[in-house]
Fold each of these.
Amino acid sequence: MQQKIDEIKNNFFEEIKNIKELASLEEFRIKYLSKNGLVTKLFDEFRELSKEEKPKFGQVINKVKNEVQDAFNELKTILEADNKSFENYIDLTLPGREKVVGTKHILTQTLDEMKSIFIQLGFSVHEGPELESDYNNFEALNFPDDHPARDMQDTFFVNDKFLLRTHTSPVQVRLMNEQKPPIRAIMPGKVYRNEAVSMKSYCLFHQVEGLYVDEGVTFAELKGTIVAFLKQFFGNDIKYRFRPSFFPFTEPSAEVDIWWVPEGKEGRWMEIMGCGMVDPNVLENCGIDSEKYTGYAFGMGVERTAMRKYGIDDIRHFFDNDKRFLTQF
Ligand code: DAH
């Protein structure tokens, strides 16, 4: 009997050393301490002992039982405490899950950059409504009644007095009616044209309008400002040219072209803005004394400028909302 007790006890303490988690502890408990466990069974055998042997082994078995029970309880407490921290356990071997972070649309990024350059040059930023009056969009800007730009083919008319603005120039009119010179502002925003959609044109696009009205503003200042902008936006080696042109609301007028070599194609000039000295009629229409003040204005196409900067070959990409395009920027 003694030998059996020693054997069970020794095995118990041998095996318990290797238990590292609650699941195996439970198996271990069943093996030794459950109703049919090896330690519990010793008591059954004890009952069968002779009267003389009973007192001797009773003590021994009880002592062993208490020792193993204590050791078991101790380990159980330790493993349960460990297991609590297991609940917060992060499995560092799991592959990570990618967090998808959105980015600003490339047009927003372009507009932000344009704004910050003009702000550095001393311009403030103003916005006007996209639903505009025929008066602000055309008449105040010196468009004759029969001007082709008023044609239904270019303009989305809402009724005979209102339309979706075809350019941001009407914001100049609003600003000059609201403020006295000196005025130096840019006016970014969306414009709409009823044109056939193609690689180069879309029914909706963005412009950044610019206006500077004060005493003695000259064409040379206009050129200086535009060139400063182009160099900051595209880099010092940007190739550009000013080309004489015509707009009803500026005199003289010019268009600005930049050199573009589309990938795999021949280089060509690309028009990105119109500009000129504000026509005295326009100043007078807005209540500004054209004898005292002069001004320059410009209007730049944002999509075209972004296309040149980022090598985008189709204006429709900006509006398709294709993630494969958008995530490149
Ligand atoms: N509004 C003209 C357009 O959409 C662009 C333009 C030309 C704006 C000359 C100006 C300007 O301010 O001075 O084509």
Note: Residues 167, 169, 209, 247, 250, 274-276, 297-299 surround 3,4-dihydroxyphenylalanine (CB under 6 Å).
Amino acid sequence: MTNILRRQAGQPQIYGHRGARGVLPENTMAGFDYLHEIGVTAVELDVQNAKGRVPVILHDPLLPMAHTRDAQGNWLPAPGPKVIDLSVDALRHYDIGRLNGATDYASRYPQQRPLDGARIPTLAEFLDWAQADAGLLINIEIKSHAHQPDLGDPPEFLAEDVAQLVQQFGLSARVVISSFDWRVLSALRRLAPDIARAYLSFEQQGQETNIVDGGALMDGLDRADFGGSLPALIAAQGAKAWCPYFRDLTPARLAEAHALDLAVNAWTVNNDDDIRSMIAMGVDGIITDYPARVQQLLGAAVA
Ligand code: MG
């Protein structure tokens, strides 16, 4: 079977991260529209369940104070409430269209244009929109919290609910589901083997990593059973892609993944030098907050 996520070296797929976080409010329909307008044909978005097992598009398990205002227009004084405790109707009261300038987070995205009134989309709303764009590749990242299970639905629910929607909208062939919590991906392998899976990893020393052999986030898997190799372990799960943090990637690891027919999509690559280095290394996908910047560096900008 052909791996649709593989690309020619030097011609990576550009994935707009959370839509296009550097340009427009993250994980909003306006951000997804923007990708379409500039001719970017792949998107990454974050999904978790609201109350009643309804998948919605938002990164944090608690409503983030960095870009959320309540129905009265006040910034949240602290993160929360939990998304899992709110119905979709209740979530609709919040405005996520502007960064709170008092937060460090806001200073990271100085070019982000505000769009007051932007709402948290449901996954169904997004998939309905995506049906019309037959050329769009969709990377759904499922957010799941192995070490804090009270922050969301269990991995099996998330896998089932997202897969069901993807199938219902007839989009299995152009969706890839990724997660740092590989229990979600194991559940998907059983429930919906026709949907492509991508294994996210973060391995920087001294920081919180999901690569702990035998740990919950790796669903108990151990690199020792795969010659000590992360790409080999991931390929053995029937994965279509490995999504490493870009600084964890080396030419040798990339070559090993390619030999196993794994696509390699690096995240989150934002500055020019890093983008150039990933293009030169030959990755299959670049996940970026600045998709137009990658287009420009690839010389493929759509006028
Ligand atoms: Mg994500």
Note: The pocket of magnesium ion is lined by residues 44, 46, 141 (CB under 6 Å).
